[in-house]
């Protein structure tokens, strides 16, 4: 490949990474604008806002979108379109779901949206189910089980396995419709739900598989469960619940009034009126499917729409490594050497379990993110980015490991970070501390640059931790480097040795 071709390729990647895409989601309960920028596989969110228009609130009784809901929707769409212009987005993707699909006056809203400047795609039920499933696959690549996307007007179910979407179904069981159905009698509703679920043929095929939760109402239920169980990490993605927790949520909501629910961190007050119906439906589903566990996905239809449009090679990339690599490169002092740093320390930790390798590399990808912070708060800055970053493809215990490695690397010492060690095992936490000390050594030795890492080598040799340095660079082994070499060797139970070649 010639220099000109390489330059054009680099410019194309840079342009692609800075493009802004807006998605306007016209749902049955809310209308939301999300503006993305960055790698298409894991774009960063620049803006996120919703309008609780309640388009599907009266579908069960009148079959139409209420006049006030229509006005709210149009005002929201006008605001969102103006914001997209001000943000200079490159493209706007707009879709509508069950309420617009089913309402007798849905075409009126589509006409109004068209006049504003939107080209609205009305998703059919199975299309919506597939996009929700693709969203889960995008954020949880190893997902295998049933995806359930609860909206205001419909419930979409899909089976996923090995990165593929299999059977898909859509049912008129949105959270805004369940209340009306329940008012006709609990037993009648149970029979109706079972009859619908029987159409899936999953009474045997889907038994004891994970159930993946998509949609604002179910995420709100998870927030309540996190609050009740004193979960230490306020991150919803990949939060897991035992199936019995669904029925417990039904009981809890019967005891809590609106004021008490408002005290639950992260729980939107606009979701409170529908929580009981969402919990009841969830308990029915996990009982029918005999689900092994419930797993929350922060990704859904919107992210599925983005994921659907990328090539297979890009889709196969690890979202955690890609996301941390992009964030690290944006904040690095010098051209990013994260992969080289990861390779440099990898031999020391070759006996790590396979699932830890990617967490260690993710930490190396972020090894420069706190250098611009106040020196007294670099450890806290690193911890915040690792622990609370908008990452996907990572569990709660793994987040603790990532945060711990960065906390240690940026000067947190050998100590567990404040409040840490509650999700990750003691062994995992201590290993993350070792990663952090190794990263700290590599960064101090090299000053964050590439050449010193390329011309040095660190390995375990018997009871020694040998650091081999090219003779022309031996002067880099100053007191600060020797001190960090000793810290790492000590925690590994080894003797620090430096050799020049």
Task: Report what the structure shows.
- With 501 residues, the protein is α/β, with parallel strands linked by helices.
- It folds into three domains: 110 residues, Nucleotidyltransferase, domain 5, CATH 3.30.420.40; 178 residues, Exopolyphosphatase. Domain 2 (Nucleotidyltransferase, domain 5, 2-Layer Sandwich); 133 residues, Hypothetical protein af1432, CATH 1.10.3210.10.
- The chain is 50% helix and 16% strand.
- It contains 23 helices and 14 strands.
- The strands form three sheets. It has a six-stranded mixed beta sheet with strand order 8-7-6-9-11-10.
- It is elongated and about 80 Å long.
- It starts with a helix and ends with a strand.
- 46% of the residues are buried.
Q: How is this fold's topology laid out?
A:
Blueprint (H helix, E strand, L loop, with lengths): L2 H16 L1 E7 L4 E7 L6 E8 L7 H4 L4 H20 L4 E6 L1 H5 L3 H11 L3 E3 L2 H15 L5 E6 L4 E7 L2 E8 L3 H8 L3 H13 L3 H4 L5 E4 L1 H13 L11 E2 L2 H12 L2 H4 L13 H15 L4 E3 L4 H8 L3 H4 L3 H13 L6 H9 L7 H12 L12 H11 L7 H17 L13 H21 L4 H4 L1 E6 L2 E6 L9 H13 L3 E6 L1
Parallel strand pairs: 1-4, 4-5, 6-9, 9-11, 13-14
Antiparallel strand pairs: 1-2, 2-3, 6-7, 7-8, 10-11, 12-13
Helix pairs in contact: 3-5, 6-14, 7-13, 10-13, 11-13, 16-18, 17-18, 17-21, 18-20, 19-20, 20-21, 21-23
């Amino acid at each position: 490949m010639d220099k000109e071709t390489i330059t054009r390729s680099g410019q194309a990647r840079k342009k692609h990474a800075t493009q802004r895409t807006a998605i306007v989601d016209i749902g049955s309960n809310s209308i939301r604008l999300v503006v993305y920028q960055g790698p298409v596989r894991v774009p960063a969110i620049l803006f996120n806002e919703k309008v609780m228009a309640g388009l599907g609130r009266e579908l069960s009784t009148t079959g139409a979108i209420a006049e006030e809901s229509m006005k709210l929707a149009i005002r929201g769409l006008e605001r969102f379109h103006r914001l997209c212009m001000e943000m200079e987005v490159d493209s706007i993707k707009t879709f509508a779901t069950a309420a617009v699909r089913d309402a007798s006056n849905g075409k009126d809203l589509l006409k109004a949206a068209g006049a504003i400047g939107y080209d609205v795609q009305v998703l059919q039920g199975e299309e919506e189910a597939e996009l929700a499933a693709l969203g889960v696959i995008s954020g949880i690549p190893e997902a295998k089980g049933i995806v359930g996307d609860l909206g205001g007007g419909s419930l979409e179910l899909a089976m996923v396995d090995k990165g593929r979407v299999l059977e898909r179904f859509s049912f008129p069981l949105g959270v805004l419709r369940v209340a009306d159905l329940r008012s006709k009698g609990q037993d009648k509703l149970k029979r109706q739900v079972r009859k619908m679920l029987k159409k899936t043929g999953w009474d045997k095929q889907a038994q004891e598989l994970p159930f993946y939760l998509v949609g604002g109402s179910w995420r709100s239920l998870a927030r309540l469960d996190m609050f009740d169980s004193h979960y230490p990490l306020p991150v919803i993605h990949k939060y897991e619940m035992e199936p019995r927790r669904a029925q417990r949520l039904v009981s809890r909501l019967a005891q809590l009034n609106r004021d008490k629910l408002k005290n639950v961190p992260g729980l939107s007050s606009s979701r409170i009126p529908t929580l009981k119906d969402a919990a009841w439906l969830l308990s029915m589903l996990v009982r029918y499917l005999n689900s092994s566990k419930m797993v929350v996905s922060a990704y859904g239809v919107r992210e599925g729409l983005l994921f659907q449009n990328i090539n297979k090679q890009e889709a196969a990339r690890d979202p955690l490594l890609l996301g941390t690599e992009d964030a690290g490169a944006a904040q690095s002092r010098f051209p990013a050497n994260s992969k080289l740093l990861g390779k440099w320390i990898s031999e020391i930790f070759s006996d790590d379990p396979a699932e830890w390798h990617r967490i260690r590399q993710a930490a190396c990808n972020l090894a420069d993110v706190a250098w611009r912070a106040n020196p007294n708060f670099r450890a806290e800055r690193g911890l915040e980015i690792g622990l609370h970053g908008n990452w996907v493809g990572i569990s709660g215990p793994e987040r603790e490991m990532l945060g711990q490695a960065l906390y240690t690397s940026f000067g947190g010492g050998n100590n567990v970070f404040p409040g840490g060690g509650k999700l990750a095992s003691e062994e995992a936490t201590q290993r993350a501390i070792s990663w952090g000390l190794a990263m700290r050594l590599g960064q101090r030795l090299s000053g964050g640059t590439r050449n010193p890492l390329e011309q040095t080598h660190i390995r375990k040799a018997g009871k020694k931790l040998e650091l081999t340095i090219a003779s022309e660079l031996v002067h880099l082994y100053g007191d600060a480097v020797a001190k960090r070499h000793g810290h790492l060797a000590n925690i590994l139970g080894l003797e620090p040795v430096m050799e020049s070649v």
